[in-house]
Amino acid sequence: MKLYYSPGACSQSVHIVLHEAGLPFEPVLASTKTHQLADGTDYYTINPNGYVPLLELDDGRKLTEVAAIMQYIADQVPDRRLAPPNGEFERYRLQQWLSFVSSELHKTFSPLFNPATPEATKATAQERLLKRLGYVDRELEGRLYLLAERFSVADAYLFVVSGWAVAKNIDISGFANLRAFRDRVAERPSVKAALTTEGFLK
Q1: By percentage, how much of the chain surpasses pLDDT 70?
Q2: What is the pLDDT of residues 100-109, one digit of tens each?
Q3: CA-CA distance, 145 to 180, in Å (whole number)?
Q4: Where is each GST N-terminal domain found (predicted)?
Q5: How many domains does the chain have?
Q6: Residue 174 to residue 138: CA distance in whole angstroms
Q7: 20: which of 3, 88, 157, 193 is 20 to 30 A away, CA to CA?
């Protein structure tokens, strides 16, 4: 398999999950600024949307979108229990969290990464993010992870996206449960491996 990624982007969550799964894969850097690979290949010829992540299987099939890719990976290694089995209620709880992180957090961060976004729009986005992160913080009370005691693919996604708050100077110091969650996830070998590959750790 190949994972097309950009350092620090949402593809980092897939990067983490691939390490959690123990599946062999090749990380391929795809710049979200130049939309080119290291060898000069136009990334749009691989993914017409131009964004990451994209997972290319050994037979050439491709998957995009974080939630779909991570659930696919989890289902390849059910013994790792990175996602509850299909059909169980907890699987829908997982999908609930994946949807929340995608629509309420991930997309709300988007204006903050665009230098053309007006300051008023950024302020509105930050206010909304603090409300949503506050909800997550309350939901994490008494839990190690989003699905209680076991790490899941949703935790990888939340870890990466909530980290953007730090990058954008959004103060999450008041969210003790979220901060403890982030500290806990940061210690996982899969996270350290992904961050090392992406150049955030030595």
Answers
A1: 100
A2: 999 999 999 9
A3: 10
A4: 1-81
A5: 2
A6: 11
A7: 88
